[in-house]
Amino acid sequence: MLLSPRSPAKSLDPAYKLRPERGQIERFKACFKTLFGHINEKESEENVKDHLMDFLKEVYYRDSYVVAPKGKTDFVIHLGKEASSPAGVLFEVKRPANRSEMVSRENLNTKAFHELLLYYFQERSRDRNSDLRHCVITNVYEWYIFDAALIDRVFYRNAHLKKEYTAWAAGQKVSRNNDLFYHEIAKPFLDTLAEEVPFTYFDLRTYQKNVNDADLSNDKALLPLYKILSPTHLLKLPTATDSNRLNPRFYTELLHLIGLEETKEGNKKVIRRKAEGQRDEGSLLENTIIELETSGKLSHLTDLGQYGRIDDEQLFSVALELCITWVNRILFLKLLESQLVRYQGGNSEYAFLNSATLSDYDELYKLFFRVLAKRPAERQSSIQRKFGKVPYLNSSLFEITELEDATLNINGLDDGLSLPLLRQSVLRDHPAYRDRSELPTLGYLFAFLDAYDFASESGDDIQETNRALINASVLGLIFEKINGYKDGSFYTPGFITEYMCRETIRKAVVQKFNDANGWQCADFGALQDKDLDRKQANDLINSLRVCDPAVGSGHFLVSALNELIAIKADLGILQDTSGRRLKGYLVRVVNDELTVLDEEDGEGFGYLMQAATSKPTAERQRVQQTLFHEKQVLIENCLFGVDINPNSVKICRLRLWIELLKNAYYTEASGFVELETLPNIDINIKQGNSLLSKFSLTEDLSDVFRKQKFSLQTYKDAVSAYKGTADKDAKAELLRFIHDIKGQFRETVMNRARAASGSPPSAANVSCSTTTWIYSVPPSRTPNW
């Protein structure tokens, strides 16, 4: 028998994320201390069982599950509130002084395990119970937890052992005494067993220091123990929840701040401007509409028709697009702020999105365009003093858009307006706002966001305050719903996009390798058995092209990004920038999110600055840098999207930037004070109608490039340079150059079409979309959106 003990962290399902409140952990610690205080090693086994049951009931099970003795079994955890419900967990308990009958990590062939096997066989055969989840042996201090599926496969379904048990239970042996089963059936079987037997092992005494430690920051070390004894683990309750699941309270109040409401029309929910008589001047939308009407700047738009056919529709659509742009930036900054505070060990000096720092819309405008859009050395001294801890990111998210330039910037909003607090506002739970009926809009927005826990990764942690988690994934769903205000929104659940990407992309990867090497791998498992050249393998995967022709919020592309990284990890080719393979980590897609776990202890990876040195360890830096650059390469080279809705395009770009932000790292060259800048990925996500084509999909592009001064490689080089540049002037110049190349391409193709037909091409072929993608596929098969 090959024994394989595992730590609690290594045994837990990676999908089991937990963020208990401080009160729950304090109750756990108090009950832990009570349990240890009641244990007298000289007392009977019954005494030990009683205290163990009290501990489990008090911390986890009292309200929903029965914990009680059952027959000869020391005690069980039932699967419901009634004792008639099936037993889900079997416990065999020994008193601490009974070492001779207790199992050890080196030997399971003792009376304790023999008894556990007997209880299991009786439950399965006599009670017809097929709902068992775990089996536990403990002496209060040491715990051995076995998966019931393992006991079933290795022991209960073993033909010889089951036959022997059946004969003994039927009285066909010389005795029906339990000792005969223990010594003459179970023990000889275990002596000859060659199977591996994995189990969870821990000693509660090793956690005493953490339980008694007054430093609350050390309590996180208790989370694996807290989780391993919980109903979620021991009863195998569902752990996976859609990471994109909407928080209704957050969603409703965000709509209120913007000036929108959700209503039902027929069988669908739609978003609309609040009804007349219920509109609040202080909301972002109404404030924007008032300023647009006052300035008359809608007339400056040359393509106003795309925003609607009547004045009110145009005014609403332009104002909504501006509001979405501004709220996009603010939510991105909230995620950034949360990340910076976490990187710095909870240092609140890195929090900048609050009324004390940003007192009005003018200050917010400065943050957008004089802080985020400029390198620290280029910022004016007053800005540097106020926002010295806010990094430069080089994202076009913080460049003035064409619509803002033509109509209104956020500093044009009226600072003097206030907004009534929503009746069900989250701020009603806060003593500082409980008696307030209204707040200045910007202050309301910041206080509202601060009432939630923004985290780019929903990992395990203790909530010191009761704040609901709003992760990056759910923001896409919120804006997808806002975007679908006319027709209702259609959002694909995470488990579906995860499945689609896993099934399709892995097959595409196998085909890539088969075609490149002349192999005949039937599936991904066969490919994993190959000895791969890491550089060639990475180049092949990086040559894949994934395009979503109705990209929406970018959910499918994010799932594809996670899957591509998991594929590289599974093939053993995930490597850092120096070519060293990333070893010792499990990189998986769990619950539609990318997780990185330590292979040894199952702990999740986290990027954190050391207080003593103000920089991360070399290994943390290496892993974080690897994940960032892998995501950057895949986003720049492999992921493309089109949507007819300009707001969807903005949100998709935002989601991809957020994925990079999750693994942002401080650069060594800056002395670990500046973050690595984000690439210009906006060129991969375009507005257009993917159902229409400007030109034939069989257009011979090679002929086109021969007749003009720009080559396909020139275009590729320009696009690559644009993605990588952090200089604003160089970026603008490259963008103009790319547009010139596209213009000459379009003109050449259209002239050729005119010459061939003797007349201009039909309107159906030229009136749609704005972008021609040349660099993403071979020239002879270019889609034109």
Report on the architecture of this protein.
With 785 residues, this protein is of the alpha/beta class. Helix content is 44%, strand content 11%. The chain has a seven-stranded mixed beta sheet, sandwiched between helices. Strand 3 and strand 4 form a beta hairpin. Mean pLDDT is 87; it is low at 761-785.
* Biggest pleated sheet: 7 strands, mixed
Q: Would you tell me the overall average pLDDT?
A: 87
Q: How far apart lie the N and C ends? A: 63 Å
* Cα-based radius of gyration, to the nearest Å: 31 Å
Count of helical regions: 28
Low-confidence stretches: 761-785
**Overall form:** globular
Short description:
The chain is of the alpha/beta class and 785 residues long. Helix 6 runs antiparallel to helix 7 (178-192) and helix 18 (472-483) packs antiparallel against helix 24 (646-661).
Would you spell out the secondary-structure blueprint of this structure?
Blueprint: E1 2-6, H1 8-11, H2 22-38, H3 45-61, E2 67-70, E3 73-78, E4 87-93, H4 111-125, E5 134-138, E6 142-147, H5 148-156, H6 159-169, H7 178-192, E7 196-203, H8 208-212, H9 223-228, H10 231-234, H11 248-258, E8 260-265, E9 268-273, H12 284-295, H13 311-343, H14 361-371, H15 381-386, H16 402-406, E10 418-420, E11 438-440, H17 441-450, E12 453-455, E13 469-471, H18 472-483, H19 494-517, H20 524-528, H21 534-542, E14 546-548, H22 555-570, E15 585-590, E16 593-598, H23 618-638, E17 639-643, H24 646-661, E18 685-687, H25 701-706, H26 712-724, H27 728-757, H28 763-766
Parallel strand pairs: 1-7, 4-5, 12-13, 14-17, 17-18
Antiparallel strand pairs: 2-3, 3-4, 5-6, 6-7, 8-9, 10-11, 15-16
Helix pairs in contact: 2-3, 4-7, 6-7, 12-13, 13-24, 18-24, 19-22, 22-23, 23-24, 26-27
